[in-house]
Structure formats: C-alpha cells, structure tokens
Amino acid sequence: MSGSNRLAGLKARPKTVTKAEVRKIDDVGEARGFVDRSPRKKPGRKPSPRTHQLHPKVLPDTGQEIADEAEKLGITQGQLIEKMWISYQTAKRKG
Predict the structure, then answer these.
(1) Any domain includes 82
(2) pTM, rounded to two decimals
C-alpha cells in the first residue's frame, strides 16, 4: 500500500474521570437496564496444587462448630472431616 498513513499521528490520551462521575454514569446505566456482564470467578476455593486438599465452603456457624469439635478432640479439622466421611460411608452401606 502506498501513501501516508493519516492515522499515524493520533495518540491515545487517558480521560480524567472522578469517582463521582463514574458512580453517576453507573447509576444511569443501571437505571436503563445495563448490568455488569464481566466474567465471574467460580465460587469456593480451588484445591491446593501441592496436596490436592479441598477447601469446602460452609456456613460460618457450621465451620465454627467443626473447628470447636476438632479442637475438643485434639485433631485437625481435616482429620475430623475424614472421620465423618468414614462414618457416612459406613452408614450408607448399612442403609
């Protein structure tokens, strides 16, 4: 292609926008039906790449009860969960 590139002299310049202006723009967009469509991360923690340990997401009260019981028994939460899993499998086989 011959000739000059007329767009070569254009430069991108950052716009100066305050937080208040961004908030106002977002409010107007939401009022007109626009919603944030950016991709979301999957909920919960990913397994540890080193140990492949799962980190279940539980309700805060349940998590505290598990922690308290493990501390009372003098074992880790993981060991308590393993014992509960064995108990569950045994009950499942019987019933």
Answers:
(1) yes
(2) 0.44
